[in-house]
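Customer escalation, tier 2.

The customer says the design service returned an amino acid string that "doesn't look like it belongs to this structure." They asked us to rerun it and document both sides in this ticket. The original structure tokens are below, unchanged.
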């Protein structure tokens, strides 16, 4: 079993670090929040008082931080300053592709191996150890990271070179944002045309309009499997995080000169929704604004 530094013990990182500890690893955990550190201790991790202290003698460093600026800072101040050069560096945060590539280049310049490994699956999947990891980096780095990621998830997929994990993540979530809005629109129109939501679901879920947003995450309460719609749009994947991912996708599209009109519209609609709906709400709650 390995000694691992884990930085960022929030909604996602807390459950992930706990699963590494449960798998028998010696997890040196750090977060700026005292509550998060206490929860990590209760879950079997060893809390330490700085990111630098967490790096002592580790074989792997896992980061799960809010955004690219946090990742770049923690890498500059702690990881590159104090981690053993042989450690595999695994960033699981969702960040912009350009920052992920810059971090990978900086690691390579220091002779260190690094991967970007963002996740699909929310807080419940982080706790249950059923996340999907999409991994960007050289084959050898992927092979080094894979056993650690497997202890926190059920699927670990090599997406390509540095930044490819982040690229896969934001393209997937851009598609999800657009299909969720389209699914909500279809339910609202069906309702206004006099169709029962259940009847429309029964037809569309076995027809060509079918999607994950329809059959696994239906935005209408009481229809399909249990979803946040059945709990007044609480829990699930926060609309604010969908907006974050759509903004990252739009930034990447601009940098790559890609045309993404549906992604742009989805970003505009989620920006308006998050602005007006201050208490955290699931992203399928956008159906309210279409009614
Ligand atoms: P969170 O805000 O709950 O957790 C982030 C943690 O990082 C916080 O506890 C914060 O104190 C800590 N932190 C910030 N700067 C730090 C620093 N310099 N040193 C140490 N700790 C620091 O966020 P989250 O929901 O856990 O999300 C983490 C990442 O996972 C984000 O990039 C998010 O986009 C991504 N993600 C989240 C979900 C979700 O459903 N929550 C799903 C998929 C991906």
């Amino acid at each position: 079993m390995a000694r691992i530094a884990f930085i960022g013990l929030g909604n996602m990182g807390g459950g992930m670090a706990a699963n590494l500890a449960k798998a028998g690893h010696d997890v040196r955990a750090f977060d700026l929040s005292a509550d998060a550190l206490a929860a990590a201790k209760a879950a079997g991790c060893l809390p330490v008082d700085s990111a630098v202290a967490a790096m002592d003698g580790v074989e792997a460093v896992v980061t799960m931080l809010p955004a690219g600026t946090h990742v770049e800072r923690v890498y500059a101040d702690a990881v590159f300053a104090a981690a053993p050069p042989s450690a595999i560096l695994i960033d699981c945060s969702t960040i912009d592709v350009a920052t992920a590539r810059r971090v990978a280049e900086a690691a390579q310049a220091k002779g260190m191996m690094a991967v970007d490994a963002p996740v699909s699956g929310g807080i419940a999947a982080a706790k249950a150890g059923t996340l999907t990891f999409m991994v960007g980096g050289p084959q050898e780095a992927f092979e080094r990271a894979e056993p650690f990621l497997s202890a926190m998830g059920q699927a670990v997929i090599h997406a390509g070179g540095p930044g490819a994990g982040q690229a896969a993540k934001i393209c997937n979530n851009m598609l999800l944002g657009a299909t969720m809005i389209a699914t909500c629109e279809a339910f609202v129109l069906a309702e206004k045309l006099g169709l029962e939501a259940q009847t429309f679901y029964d037809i569309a879920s076995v027809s060509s309009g079918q999607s994950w947003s329809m059959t696994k995450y239906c935005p209408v309460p009481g229809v399909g499997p249990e979803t946040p719609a059945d709990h007044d749009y609480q829990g699930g994947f926060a609309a604010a995080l969908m907006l974050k991912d759509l903004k990252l996708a739009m930034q990447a599209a601009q940098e790559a000169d890609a045309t993404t009109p549906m992604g742009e519209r989805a970003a505009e609609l989620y920006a308006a929704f998050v602005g007006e709906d201050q208490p955290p709400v699931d992203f399928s709650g956008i159906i309210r604004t279409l009614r």
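Tier 2 assessment: The sequence is consistent with the input. The chain has a mean pLDDT of 97. The first strand starts at residue 3 and ends at 7. Sent an explanation to the customer and offered a walkthrough call.
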